[in-house]
Amino acid sequence: MAKSLLVVESPTKAKTLGRYLGRDFVVKASVGHVKDLPKNRLGIDIEKGFQAAYQVMSGKKKVLSELSAAAAKADAVYLGPDPDREGEAIAWHIAEEIRRDEKPFHRVLFYELTHKAVKEALKRPSELNRGLYEAQQARRILDRLVGYLISPILWQKVKPGLSAGRVQSVALRLVCEREDAIQQFNPEEYWTIEARLTPSETMETDSSENLGERAFTAILQRYMKKKCKVSREEEARGLVERLRYLPYKVEKVERKQKNKNPSPPFITSTLQQESARRLRFSAKKTMSLAQKLYEGLEVGNEGAVGLITYMRTDSTRLSTEAVDAARDYILETWGKDYLPPKAVFYKSKASAQGAHEAIRPTDVNRTPETVAPHLTKDQLALYSLIWKRFVACQMAPARISQTTVDIGAGGYSFRATGSVVNFHGYMKLYVESRENGENGEAGEKWLPELTEGQDLSLLEIIPKQHFTQPPPRFSEASLIRELEELGIGRPSTYATILSTIVERGYVASEKQRLTPTELGRIINTLLVESFPGIVDVEFTAQLEKSLDGVEEGQYPYLKLLEEFYDQFARTLESAKTNMLNVKAKGLPTDLQCPLCKHPLHIRLSRNGPFLACSDHPRCTFTADYERDEKGRIRVLERETVEGENCEKCGSPMVVKKGRYGTFLACSNYPKCKHTKAVKAGENTSAAIGDPGETCDKCGRPMVMKQGRFGAFLACSGYPGCKNTRPVATGIPCPQEGCDGQLVERRGMSGRRFYGCSRYPQCTISFRGTFVQEPCPHCGFPSMLEKQDKKKGARLLCPNPACGHEAEHPSSETQGAIGS
User: Measured between alpha carbons, how far is 773 from 468 in angstroms, rounded to an integer?
Assistant: First the structure.
C-alpha cells in the first residue's frame, strides 16, 4: 500500500510528527537547507536579472537521493518545513530537486505540533508560496551582494578576515551612535527637596517611637504656581532654611481607582527581550531553546510532543480554542474573580503575519510543574515564562488605588503619591520585568489617611543632589526593541543580528550591556563614510517594507533588486578608491608623537589596536591606549617590572603583547631589542613565572614560558638544560592503568588538544573543552564539552570504559578548562 511522504527540516520535528501520523506517512528530514549559493564566488549573475546559481550543499546529495527514492514510492508528497520565509525556501528547493513526475506536491504549515493541529494542517494543504519564496530569495541576494562585495574592500583597507552585513552593519551603527551619545553627554546638576511629614495630631498623641509609622515623604514641585528648578547647592540650602519654619497643610486629596491590564502574549521580539531581562539568556540561546520546545520533547508517557507554538512570529493573535482552554484553567485554579467577563483578544500590528499565532503553550494544562521532570533547567525556565505570560494575558486586570496629595507651605507646593494594590488579578501569576531587572509594576507606596485642610508637622527637610543621566547602553533586550521599533529586521533575524556583531568582535557584551570595540568603531566609521545609504536606518527599514511587499505579491522582486543595486554599485566603486586605507596609513587621531611631534594614528595588529607614529618607519614610536568616559584617547604608559632590567643594556624591562601572548621587552627599543617570556595572564611583577615544579633532568626550578603554540614549562637552567614539558591540567589520565595527567598540547596547525603527560607510552587524546563537573555515571572528575551540529553542546565522559553522553545543561554556568 502506497504511503504519503512528509518532508520537514528537522530530525526532532520528524520524530514528533511520525508519532502522530502512524503508518500512513513516511516522515523524513532534510536536516536544514539543501541548496545554497556557492562559497567561493558571488553566485549572482547581475546581468541576467540577478539569477542565483544555487548548488546542492555539501553532504546533502545523499539526503536528496533518499528523499527522491521515498518520493518515487509515495502517492503524494507533503512539504512541511517551518511556516516562514526560510522554511518556504527549504520547501521550494526540495521540490526542485526531488520532483520527477506529475505527482502532487503539497505545502503544509505546522504552527504547533500536537496531534489535533497536525491532522488539521494535513487536511488543508496549500501550494508552494511564490511570494514568500521570492521574499526570502531577495533577502538572500541582497545580503550576498553586500557581504561578498564590501568585505574584500575591508580586507584591503583594514585587515583580512573582516566582513560586512546589510542589517548587522546598521545594528553596529546603532550601538556606536549610542556610545557616542553617552560620551558626548554633559551631565547637569539639579536638586530635589523632600519634606518628611506627619499629621499634626500624631505629634500630640503618639510617642516618638510611633511617629515614623504615620510619616510620609512629599517632594517640592512649585513656588507661586511656577515649577521649582533648583540647580545649585546654594539655592537648595537657602530653600531648606526657608521651608524649615513654614506651616504645612493638606490642600487637595485625589483618589483614583486604576485598572492595570496584563501584557499581550509573546511574539518573537518580546520573548527575546523578556528572556534577556528575566533569565539573562541571549537572543540566540532563547531561540535555540524555543526551537526545541516547538519541535517536540519527550514528556513521560506522552512521548515526543511539541510544547509551544511556532516561535518566529510577530502576531499576537490567539486561537479561540486556546483562549477558551486558558479561561477554563483560570476559573478552576483561581475562581471567577480572576476571570474577565469576556475573552481577551489582542490586536496585532498591521505588518504581522496573519496566519501565525502568538507564542503560547500548545496545552495550557501542561503546566510547568507537570513537565519539569522532563525538561532541562533552561528549557523549563523558558517554558514557564511562555506559559505564565499566556495564562496571565487572559486573567482579570489588577485594581490599584492611587492617591495624590498636594501640600501647601507659604506659597510652596509639595506633592506626595501613594498606591495600594486592592486586587492583584493577573499579577498573582506574572509581572513583566523592566530593563533594570525589577518588576514593571510599581510596588505599593503607603500614605496615611489624609483630608483637605488637615495640618501637618514637619519632621525633616532633606535636600538631595542629582545629575542628569546619559542614555543607557543597549542591552540585547533594548537593542531588539530598538530594531523592532525602527522596522529593521524581522522575527527570524533578531537573534542572528545580535550574535553576529558580537562574534565578529565588533561589539562586546559586558554585564549585559553592549559596547562597540575599537575594531567595531573603525568599521562603523568607514562604512558610514563610504556606504551612507547601506547603513542608513530609514533606507534599511524601507527595504524591509519592500521585502514584505514582495512576500504579499505587491512589489516586484526584480524591481527591488534593481533599485537597490543601482545605488549600491555607485557607492561600491567610490569606496574602492576613496575609503581610508587604515592598513597602510592608520586612523588619524588628534594626538602627537612624543618623540617627533608627528600625528599619532590608530593601527591594527593581530593583537588589537595600538597607537603608532604616522612618520613610520623614520619614527618607531608605538603605544597602547584606552578611551576615557568621553571617548578621548589616552596613551598608556608601558608597564615596567620592578627589579627587572635588561640583561644586555641595563634599561628597565616593560610588558608588551605580541603574537604569542605577553612578554617582556627592553624599554630602550629599537636600540636594544632584547625580549624575555612570561606566562600570559599572570602577574607581570616577576619576569619568571614560578609554577612550583622542578626539572626532572637537572633539578633546577621550572619556569612558565609562552611559545608559538601556547604556554609551556621550561628549565630555568636554559641553555645548559633544554628540558621542557607541557602544562598539566590537574585532570588524571582516564586510560586504565595509566598514572599520567592530561596536559594541553598544540598540533602543527596550532589547534589545541589534550593528551597524556606519559606520551608516547600513552597515546590517548581529546579535542574540546573540559568542564569541571564529575560524570554522573562513573564519577570521573571532569566532563568534555563538544559541539555537535545536530545536537548542540554535549557533555561526554572521557573515560573510555564509561562513554556517558548528555545534553549540556547550561554552558553559561559551568567552570571550564581551556575555554
Answer: 47
CA angle, residues 476, 480, 481, in degrees to nearest 5? 120
Is the predicted pLDDT of residue 764 greater than 70, yes or no?
A: yes
Preceding amide of 617 cis, omega within 30 = yes
Query: Residue 513 is placed in which grid cell?
Result: 550591556
Tell me if residue 330 falls in helix, strand or coil.
Answer: helix
Q: At 311, which amino acid appears?
A: M
First and final CA of the chain: distance in angstroms? 54
* Contact call for residues 718 and 745 (beta carbons, < 8 A): no
pLDDT for 490-523, tens place per residue? 878 888 899 899 988 899 988 889 999 999 999 9
Kindly give, in sequence order, each residue whose CB lies less than 8 Å from that of residue 589, ignoring residues fewer than 6 positions away: 599, 600, 601, 602, 611, 633
Domains of the chain: 4-128 (3.40.50.140), 149-182+477-583 (1.10.460.10), 189-261+399-467 (2.70.20.10), 268-396 (1.10.290.10), 726-817 (no CATH)
For the stretch 207-263, pLDDT in tens is 555 555 678 999 999 999 899 999 999 999 999 999 999 999 999 999 999 999 999
**223 an active-site residue?**
no
Catalytic residue among 310, 383, 555, 565: 310
User: Cell 596550532 belongs to which residue?
Assistant: 750
What is the Cα–Cα distance from 424 to 420, expressed in whole angstroms?
A: 10
Supply the pTM of this predicted model: 0.75
Q: Name the region of 437 (left: φ>0; alpha: ψ -120 to 50; beta: rest).
A: left
| Region of residue 412 (left: phi > 0; alpha: psi -120 to 50; beta: else) | beta
